[in-house]
Amino acid sequence: MSDDRDPVFPPRAGVLTRRSFLGHGAKVAGAALLAPALPGLLSGVAGCGDDGGGELPDPRPDHTFPAYATTPFTLGVASGDPAADGFVLWTRLALDPLATDTPGGMSADDVPVYWEVAEDEAFEKLVARGVETAQAGYAHSVHVTVEGLRADRWFFYRFEVGAHRSAVGRARTLPKAGASTDHFVLAVTSCQRYEHGYFASHRYLAAEADVDLVLFLGDYIYEYPDSDEERNLRHDLTPSPRTLDEYRLRHAFYKTDPDLQAGHLRCPWVTIWDDHEVENGYAGSVTAAENPTSFARRVAAYQAYWEHLPLRGAPPVEGVFQLYRDLVIGDLAQVFMLDTRQYRTVSPCGQIGSECPANVDSDILGPAQEAWLTGGLASSTARWKVLGNQVVFAEMPLVAFDGAAPLYNYDQWDGYPSSREAVLNAIRDHDVDNFLIVSGDVHSLGMGRVHDTADDVTTPILATEIVAPSVNSDASRVAPFEERILAVPWVDAFSVTVHGYARLTLSHAEARVDFMVVTDLGDPDAEQSVHSSWVIADGVGGAVQV
Ligand code: FE
Ligand code: CA
Q: 1-173 sits in which CATH class?
């Protein structure tokens, strides 16, 4: 696939700089910069000259587009959920992102939105185009499932309504399942909390030369502000959400961040939610009858999440949405993206404590997802089996080996030991090798091993766990425990003071991890550095620092 790899992606005119954004007080200023209303290509004009457009009829003359005075593309654009023949394109129209009378300051009318995909950034070689309806009932969000494209290629896309064009984003198709693939790069991150500072790491992500895909492991928004004013380096400008319109407002507010918009422009994202997209620490198997208030929040939050991300498939219905899914990347990797929230039971071990018994009756995946995952792991023929997961998988005594009883966070897999054992049994029973787990949630960088017997590091390694740092959620309160966690024999790296992403470069010989971090959350221009680099060799569990 390396033949198709693009050169270093040049910065594009109109793609923000931090300075230009800061120069404008309005929250939509960055977005406006991203979405210049370019002249030309108006309705009725055959759009694409002598190239591929001739084979692709222009659908615009069949539609009447509204003539907005200002751009409706204030929330950016995104691509996601790539397959070998396509991907999902997303945008949401919002003339006034933080309007409180109507979502996005839009009328109650559905709006036609033109979209196009090209092989080149000048859009001279169109490969797909169409008109999708931005439905008022879904906050004028647009989800286009593009199909029929060539595998393992980069493409450019944009949207248009009347005279207004969106920013240009990049998307790529995956190599076909089983196709020889020598190199693929994932950027793995989680947990962006607006008030904890800037999303500087997304700006670096946007400038990465060689990232194919972002895996976002949850906490895309936070539903309530941190009460610790010292950590509020910026402030939420929308109320803590309870209703659908309030969750929409929160998502829209986050989307006005220019660094987040830039990160989405770079490449497709595959996202899963954790708890804060809905409510801190919730367990999704709690029914409407058991907790009607919490259930109503979930129904609202799931719909708003779907409306704001490039997800495949129909929207959630009454708080039900199948988020778990897998991606096959040639013969190199199969990525299983989990949903450890929607189906989890309340852990009977509480939130934090000592030693949840191994036979405790708790379930973090639900039976259908567990069967899907264990079956998929057993049958995967890819070099690397990657588990994209919200919460830390390995046994993790938070205070250990000082004579006191170890404490565990039972929001993690430690609260669901029988679910964890079911996954590990699939690994044992089918001799699954090269099993990588990527996790988020703890706002810390980490690297560790999952051994056959968890606390006996002389037993075989069943999985290597990479804990991706947060984009910017702060965990500095955990700093006093850093050394103790590092002393856990199956932990190789741990830091709570860095933020950013784990760049995971997969090849057949090895999986390489570079932790790309910033440290100063209060500095929008924070410098990025490499915290550490690690290699997991083919056939050998565990990471070695390089
Ligand atoms: Fe978080
Ligand atoms: Ca979380």
A: mainly beta
pLDDT of residue 349: 86
Distance 390 CA to ligand 2 centre (A): 7
Residue 460 CB burial class (10 angstroms; 0-12, 13-18, ≥19): exposed
Q: What is the pTM of this model?
A: 0.90
Give distance in angstroms: CA of 432 to centre of ligand 2: 28
Q: What is the DSSP letter of 61?
A: G
* Whole-number Å distance between alpha carbons of 36 and 475: 38
User: 284 CA distance to ligand 1 centroid (A)?
Assistant: 17
Res 307 pLDDT > 80: yes
Residue 253 has pLDDT above 60, yes or no: yes
Record: fold of 174-545: Purple Acid Phosphatase; chain A, domain 2 (3.60.21)
Residue 70: the pLDDT is: 98
Ligand 1: distance of its center to the CA of 472 in Å? 9
- For the chain, give every domain's residue range: 1-173, 174-545
Distance of CA 427 to the CA centre of its chain: 26
Tokens representing 343 are 């189906």
| pLDDT tens-place string over residues 72-86 | 999 999 999 999 999
Residue 219 CA to ligand 2 center (angstroms) comes to 6
CA of 168 to the centre of ligand 1 (A): 30
Could you say which ligand is closest to the alpha carbon of residue 475?
Answer: 1
